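Blinded run. Sample ID left blank on purpose so nobody reads anything into the name before looking at the predicted structure. Input follows.
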Amino acid sequence: MKPWGRYKLEEAMPAPAPPGMVAVAELFPVKRKDWAKIVVALFIFMAGAVMGMSMSAHFARYFTSEARFFLPAEMYAVNCEKDCLSVKSFVKPEAVMHSMTDEELFWRASLVPKKLEFPFNRVIKVAFMFLTRGPMPFLPLWERFLKGHQGLYSIYIHAQPGYKINVSESSPFYRRQIPSEEVSWGSISLIDAEKRLLSNALLDFSNERFVLLSESCIPVFDFPTVYKYLTESDYSFVESYDEDSPRGRGRYSRSMYPEIQLHQWRKGSEWFELNRDLAVNVVADYKYYLLFSKYCKPSCYPDEHYISTYLNMFHPAQTANRSLTWVNWSFGGPHPALYGQENITAEFIQTIRNNGTICTYNNKPSTYCYLFARKFSPSALEPLLNLSSSVMKF
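Blinded prediction complete.
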């Protein structure tokens, strides 16, 4: 055995380095007991690194799962034909039913683009707007009139709430009823209904001409003639005249002064035709509409005065000052003459088409003054269908 003193001496002395190498102890002069601490620290570090990588993978899977919960992948894979904003859905709504209030609808319809060019192939359409209390007995005649001209017209129907027009899916009137409200004759509710029809039609940017019709109206010319007449006209067709009688100026209320003065007051047929610019102006107006709603009560008949007065005040040069809908008031009374089965002959229809009246079309004399006619009873449908191809040419 080594002597105790020599053992301690040898243990304290470093071992000689291999040839050609520098002793580690010379580079890192650390005591043997400190090396043990370094090894333990390295072990703890490596264990922590392994544990950290494991937990990192776990949390990555967790947060990925949570992210999918809060930000589902489906939101980045939306069917844009149905759910995304698009020009197509804005300029030509596929459905006419919606949940907008009148205030929201009128605001939306009065939007006018500053840019003149359209970012789509715009084919001008005529909007036929039907204001009806219920059944539309002349639908078969109108369907025949419209047949073969898809893409050149739009249909809008304002019926009493709860009433549903029953037609087949192939009919141009299928699902063309707009959201409606109760309408009573001689009240401001008629103007509300007219504005709803105009507003819904304005949502389709291809609609350029807007015709107001009733369930008792019929066309007296074929569609190509009507379309050409309207789309090539420089003017809109709104009747507006000053009548110094109880039925004219006598309906004016002094409470409308000074916004509307007596000399500006006008009377005219409810059945109008407007271009897009005038339709937007009528829908956008609230100031003068409010005066009519306050002071033009049932005996005043707002539908005979509001649009005629408003356009006469602000846009008189844009109207032809006549209606395109023929009607016979010669018998007197609050309603025009009603024509039934016994009245329908080829001669009668020809008289409406060309009755000797001279009007102006684009500032030139014309004998073609009426495109539509009223008022017809349901019994007139059958003889009208029999005459449509030979007399009306559709």
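Unblinding after everyone has recorded impressions. The longest helix spans residues 32-70.
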